[in-house]
C-alpha cells in the first residue's frame, strides 16, 4: 500500500512519543495487516484438466539429470527447477508421477507429499516463499514410468531396446517434475545417462557426451523456452545425420531397430526437414528457433508430435512430406505460439493442417480453396464432423478430426472472405504479436478483425462456436 504525504501542524516531541506508543499498541487490521502465506493452487486454472499446472509459481528453467535403464525400463534422477514465487507461499505443487525420495529448496530440505491421486507433488519449504523471489528446487526420484497413469493416459512408450517420451497434452510428469501447462514456458536442459553404446536424442543442441566405463551421458539444451509437454528424449540405437541449410543447423535421427528399407526411407523423409522449413518461411517469416530436426522411432506411437525443434515421427516412409510440413508448421503454431487454454487447440491443429493445404497448393497440388470446397461438399450436414464446437470442443475431443479439418477450413474460409493479401497480413501479424507467448481464439479473432477492417463476428461464430454446418454464404467465405 502507498500513502500520500499530507501537510499537518508541527507536533511537539512529547506528543510524537505519545502517538508512537499509542499506534504501536494497536494491531493492524484490514489491508494494513500483512497477508499470511498461502498454499499454492493445485492447478493453473484450465477447465479441461483442473490439476494441470500449478498456482503461485512461474518456472524459469528445468535442469534434468536422469538415468534410464532400457532393459528394466527404470528411470531415476534429479531435476532442478528454478522458479519465481508469484505470491507469498507456504507450499506449492509440481506435477509429477514417480516416487520422490527427497526435495530441497534453496539448499534446505523441504517436506513433501503426493496428493490428488499421486499427480501433485506438494512441497512445503522450511521457510515460506515471498512473492517475487527466485528459488531453486531440487527433486530426486526413481521408478518405472510405465506403471503410472494420469487423466486416463498411460503415456510411457518403450521397449527393452528403445524409449521415446512423446505425447500430448501430457508427458512431462512421467519423467520430470513440471508446471505442466502451456502457460508456463521454461528453458529445458536435459542430461540422460544410458548404457554404453546407446544414443540419446532430445530438444535443441547437443552440448556434449560424457563417456564412462559402462554408461554414456548425453547433454542437450534448447535455447528458447518451451511448454513442458514439448520436451522429450529418445534413447536406443539411432543413426544421426546433421548439417546446415541456409545457416540453420539441423540434426535428424532414425532408429536402427527398423528394417534397413524403413531406415533408408525414414532418413530420406527426415532429411527433407530443412527444405520444408525454408518453404514455410516464405509464408510465415523466419523460423522461430535456433536449430531444427526430427527423429523417427521404431516404436508405434500412432501419431507424430511437434516436440520443439525436433518433432518425433513413426516410420511412415519417404513419401509423407505433408506430415513433416504439419509438424514443422507447429513450430510456429503450437510451439512458439502456445495455446492459452486447451480449448484453443484449433489454433495449433487448424493452422498446421492449413499449412499442409498451402504446401500442396504451392507444390503442384490442389488449391486451398478447392480442398475447402471438397470438404464442404462431401461431408453431410448430419455428420458428427459438424457437431464439434471447434472453439471449445471439450477435453475428450481436443484431437477430434474436426479440430484439424474444420480448423483448416476456418482459415481457408477466412482467406476467401478477406482476400489473399489481407489473409497473409493477418497471419504474419498474429505470429509477430504473439511471438514466444500464448494465444487464444478471442485474440486471433481480434487480430483478424483489426487487420482486415471487417466485422468478422458472425463468421467466427459460424465456424468456431456453432455445432452445425456453416451456411454456404459469402460472409462465411463459401460463395
From TrEMBL:
Gene3D superfamilies to which the protein is assigned, alphabetical: Neutral Protease Domain 2, tricorn interacting facor f3 domain
UniProt keyword GTP-binding present: no
Swiss-Prot/TrEMBL catalytic activity: Release of an N-terminal amino acid, Xaa-|-Yaa- from a peptide, amide or arylamide. Xaa is preferably Ala, but may be most amino acids including Pro (slow action). When a terminal hydrophobic residue is followed by a prolyl residue, the two may be released as an intact Xaa-Pro dipeptide
Stored Pfam families: Peptidase_M1, Peptidase_M1_N
EC number: 3.4.11.2
Location of the Peptidase M1 membrane alanine aminopeptidase domain: 321-463
Gene Ontology MF terms in the entry: alanyl aminopeptidase activity; metallopeptidase activity; zinc ion binding
GO terms classed as biological process: proteolysis
This protein's UniProt keywords: Hydrolase, Metal-binding, Metalloprotease, Protease, Signal, Zinc
CDD domains the UniProt entry points to: M1_APN_like
All copies of domain Aminopeptidase N-like N-terminal, residue ranges: 62-230
Signal peptide: 1-30
Cofactor(s) needed: Zn(2+)
Family, similarity comment: Belongs to the peptidase M1 family.
PANTHER family in alphabetical order: AMINOPEPTIDASE N (PTHR11533:SF297), PROTEASE M1 ZINC METALLOPROTEASE (PTHR11533)
Protein name: Aminopeptidase N
The organism of origin for this protein: Nocardioides ganghwensis
Taxonomy of the source species: Bacteria, Bacillati, Actinomycetota, Actinomycetes, Propionibacteriales
Amino acid at each position: 500500500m502507498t500513502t500520500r504525504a499530507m501537510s499537518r501542524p508541527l507536533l511537539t516531541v512529547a506528543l510524537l512519543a505519545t502517538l508512537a506508543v499509542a499506534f504501536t499498541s494497536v494491531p493492524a487490521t484490514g489491508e494494513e495487516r500483512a497477508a499470511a502465506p498461502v498454499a499454492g493452487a493445485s492447478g493453473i486454472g484450465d477447465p479441461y484438466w483442473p490439476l494441470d499446472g500449478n498456482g503461485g509459481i512461474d518456472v524459469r528453467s528445468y535442469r534434468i539429470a536422469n538415468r534410464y535403464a532400457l532393459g528394466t525400463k527404470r528411470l531415476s534422477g534429479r531435476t532442478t527447477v528454478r522458479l519465481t514465487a508469484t505470491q507469498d507461499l507456504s507450499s506449492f505443487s509440481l506435477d509429477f508421477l514417480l516416487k520422490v525420495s527427497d526435495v530441497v529448496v534453496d539448499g534446505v530440505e523441504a517436506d513433501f507429499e503426493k496428493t490428488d491421486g499421486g499427480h501433485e507433488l506438494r512441497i512445503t519449504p522450511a521457510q515460506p516463499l515471498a512473492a517475487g523471489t527466485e528459488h531453486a528446487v531440487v527433486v530426486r526420484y526413481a521408478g518405472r514410468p510405465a506403471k503410472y497413469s494420469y487423466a486416463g493416459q498411460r503415456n510411457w512408450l518403450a521397449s527393452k531396446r528403445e524409449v521415446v517420451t512423446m505425447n500430448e497434452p501430457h508427458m512431462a510428469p512421467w519423467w520430470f517434475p513440471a508446471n505442466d501447462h502451456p502457460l508456463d514456458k521454461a528453458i529445458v536442459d536435459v542430461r540422460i545417462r544410458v548404457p554404453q553404446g546407446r544414443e540419446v536424442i532430445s530438444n535443441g543442441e547437443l552440448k556434449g557426451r560424457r563417456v564412462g566405463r559402462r554408461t554414456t551421458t548425453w547433454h542437450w539444451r534448447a535455447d528458447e523456452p518451451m511448454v513442458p509437454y514439448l520436451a522429450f528424449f529418445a534413447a536406443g540405437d539411432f543413426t544421426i545425420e546433421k548439417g546446415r541449410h541456409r545457416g540453420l543447423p539441423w540434426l535428424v535421427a532414425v532408429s536402427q531397430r527398423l528394417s534397413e528399407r524403413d531406415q533408408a526411407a525414414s532418413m530420406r523423409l527426415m532429411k527433407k526437414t530443412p527444405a520444408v522449413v525454408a518453404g514455410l518461411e516464405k509464408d510465415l517469416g523466419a523460423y522461430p528457433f535456433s536449430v531444427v530436426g526430427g527423429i523417427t522411432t521404431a516404436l508405434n506411437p500412432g501419431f507424430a508430435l511437434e516436440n520443439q525443434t525436433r518433432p518425433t515421427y513413426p516410420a511412415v516412409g519417404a513419401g509423407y512430406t505433408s506430415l513433416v510440413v504439419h509438424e514443422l508448421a507447429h513450430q510456429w503454431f503450437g510451439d512458439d505460439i502456445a495455446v492459452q487454454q486447451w480449448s484453443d487447440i484449433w489454433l495449433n491443429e487448424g493452422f498446421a493442417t492449413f499449412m499442409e493445404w498451402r504446401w500442396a497448393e504451392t507444390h503442384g497440388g490442389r488449391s486451398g480453396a478447392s480442398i475447402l470446397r471438397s470438404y464442404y461438399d462431401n461431408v453431410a450436414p448430419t455428420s458428427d464432423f459438424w457437431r464439434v464446437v471447434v472453439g471449445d470442443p471439450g477435453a475428450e475431443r481436443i484431437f477430434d478430426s474436426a479440430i484439424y479439418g474444420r480448423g483448416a477450413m476456418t482459415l481457408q474460409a477466412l482467406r476467401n472472405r478477406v482476400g489473399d493479401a489481407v489473409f497473409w497480413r493477418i497471419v504474419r501479424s498474429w505470429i509477430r504479436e504473439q511471438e514466444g507467448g500464448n494465444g487464444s481464439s478471442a485474440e486471433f479473432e481480434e487480430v483478424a478483425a483489426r487487420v482486415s477492417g471487417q466485422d468478422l463476428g458472425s463468421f467466427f461464430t459460424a465456424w468456431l462456436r456453432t455445432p452445425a454446418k456453416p451456411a454456404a454464404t459469402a460472409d462465411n467465405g463459401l460463395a
